[in-house]
Amino acid sequence: MEKSRVKVPVANLWRSKDKVRMIDKKILAGDAKSWSAEMSDQETIQLCDDNMIDSQLLFNDKVLVEENDGTWAKIIACDQPTHQNSNGYPGWIPSSSLAPAIPEQESAGTVTICVKTAPLYDEEHTPLTELTLGTQLEKITADDCKVKVATPLGIGFVDKKATEIPTDLVGENDGKTMVNIAKQFLGMRYIWGGISSYGYDCSGLVYGLHRVFNVTIPRDADDQQVQGAPIAVDSILPGDLVFFAYEHGTGAVHHVGMYIGNGKMIESRTPGKQVDIAELTEPKFAAEYAGYRRYWK
């Protein structure tokens, strides 16, 4: 299979290349920000109800290309573990959203975007695109102000501060820091399949938060619930994941949130809703509790 990279800020991983609507033309053209903001609530709900997309990819994410007809590519998202495929998450993406890696990317270390959004510049300091939280880039050099990076668009630069977690969000451990980062997204709309600062689904929110710490966790809640370290109720800490399942917590896992302390979690609730803070004693959650897992150290 051919290796490639994502060259747009955010790309949908489509279940089928035949499910595209008129509103989706914006994200097909690389404008995920407008697409996420301009959809009606019903259009966001349709993403879930009609099984249109399964996930998203961020700029520079690695993919394996299984098929490519010049318009659509059937790919595997290498950094999104799933039980569906041992190589990563499968799906479809517009061919125009992909580009080969450049030679400088092959042996470089990485940096991660640690703020909600950050511009990627060229050598003349002209903005090339906007990057979202969790985007990972190959670092060539760095000084006190900027980081020189290798990308599928060529050599670029990001502000050094964009690769550092803001000091006011740093907690006493990585779990608390993830909670602080997550709270920046309170009120943001739920986007089914979302893993970017433009909108998250429940498992995409916690997946994206762990990316900031270069911790790769499974993409979906059901896989997240069977990996990681199991945590007893009396040992939970902020940053731990809490899961919910049908059949009074014994059936299929359908939701995940991040524990924030004091019997509460932060979550991207459900299609048509937003990122919010919920009490774990809320009847729906209390009846479907399915355990805690920890991935941070």
UniProtKB/TrEMBL annotation:
Q: Which Gene3D superfamilies match?
A: endopeptidase domain like (from Nostoc punctiforme) (3.90.1720.10)
Domain NlpC/P60 as annotated: residue spans: 172-297
Q: Does the keyword Transmembrane helix apply?
A: no
Q: Which Pfam families match?
A: NLPC_P60 (PF00877), SH3_16 (PF18348), SH3_YKFC_2nd (PF23795)
Keyword line: Hydrolase, Protease, Thiol protease
Gene Ontology molecular function terms on file? cysteine-type peptidase activity
Q: Which domain of life is it from?
A: Bacteria
Q: Name one GO biological process term.
A: proteolysis
SUPFAM superfamilies according to UniProt: Cysteine proteinases
**Entry keyword annotation includes Coiled coil:** no
Say which family it is in: Belongs to the peptidase C40 family.
Q: What is this protein called?
A: NLP P60 protein
